UniProtKB/TrEMBL annotation, chains A, B:
GO terms for molecular function: DNA binding; DNA-binding transcription factor activity. This is Transcriptional regulator SlyA. Residues 1-135 form the HTH marR-type domain. It comes from Virgibacillus massiliensis. SMART domains: HTH_MARR. Keywords: DNA-binding, Transcription, Transcription regulation.
Length: 143, 143
DNA sequence: TTAATTAGTTAGGCAAACTAACTAACGAAT
DNA sequence: ATTCGTTAGTTAGTTTGCCTAACTAATTAA
């Protein structure tokens, strides 16, 4: 099989088991991986508008609205009004921040386990490859 | 950011855009990427039972049943009864086989475009890394 | 000041997955 | 040979995670 076929073959087979296991790890926090992605984004990039979150995750705004609403219900996020009165700045609550620490610890352990036998160089190279693909897809869409 | 974090970060960001674009490529054949995965599997591995398909894709049987039913409606697949009368052997129809050729050509072009700037070595290394992850996840589930 | 754009929400829909509960057929074990 | 556990596949019903269309409110540009 050609290298590019090999790669996409493995790529397809890996995603579901990974997300399923991630969801299982997150269950004790009553979170799905999609919700954790939002919290993770805010944790590392500070408060964000709903549009920021949507465009970063490359999903539509209504989808993001609902996820954020759920996270607000769980008291993991809160929204404050921005200078531009149309916007809502979404930030972590104290409880949310606390959970982030616990979740990060758990997820990091899982992720490190998955890559423990792979040299760091290769991990970085694979990350670069994926990043490259993301860029190419954006270009492809435009032109 | 640590290599393993980098990797999973990119991994998360790449999947949806990739699948979305794949679905767009497949739209002219009235297929979704999940359905194409099934056809692709049968194309490369010959006729399969429904259980084979489900366990390979790592989804539950009811999910597989419905997808295969849809592909039979489209006249891309057909099922014949196996020696074991409980089983159904799912195989490509003539029309399905024809479509596979057309789809393969289109998808290959897209996938090659995505990786055209990446040395083949790195592609293979990344495929190996993903394969390794799949294995680790299976192990993790068991123990 | 009016028109176009942007931020966010609501409503409604669909794909893709799941579990639970079922039927039918097989196989092993006494 | 009969029974009992297992496997193959289906049906029914639910949920997640995404989408588009249509809307309101606020901002920006002409």
């Amino acid at each position: 099989m050609k290298p590019y076929k090999q790669f996409f073959h493995e790529y397809n087979l890996t995603y579901r088991p990974y997300v399923n296991q991630l969801n299982q790890e997150l269950a004790e926090f009553q979170l799905y991986s999609s919700q954790w992605r939002i919290m993770h984004f805010i944790l590392h990039n500070g408060e964000q508008t709903l549009s920021d979150i949507a465009s970063y995750q490359k999903v539509e705004k209504p989808t993001t609205t609902k996820m954020v609403q759920r996270l607000i219900e769980l008291d993991y996020l809160q929204s404050i009004s921005g200078a531009d009165k149309r916007t809502k700045l979404i930030q972590l609550t104290e409880k949310g921040l606390e959970r982030c620490d616990q979740i990060q610890a758990k997820i990091s352990q899982f992720q490190q386990y998955l890559l423990e036998d792979i040299p760091e160089e290769e991990q970085v190279a694979a990350a670069r490859l994926l990043n490259h693909i993301s860029g190419k897809i954006s270009d492809y869409r435009k032109g």
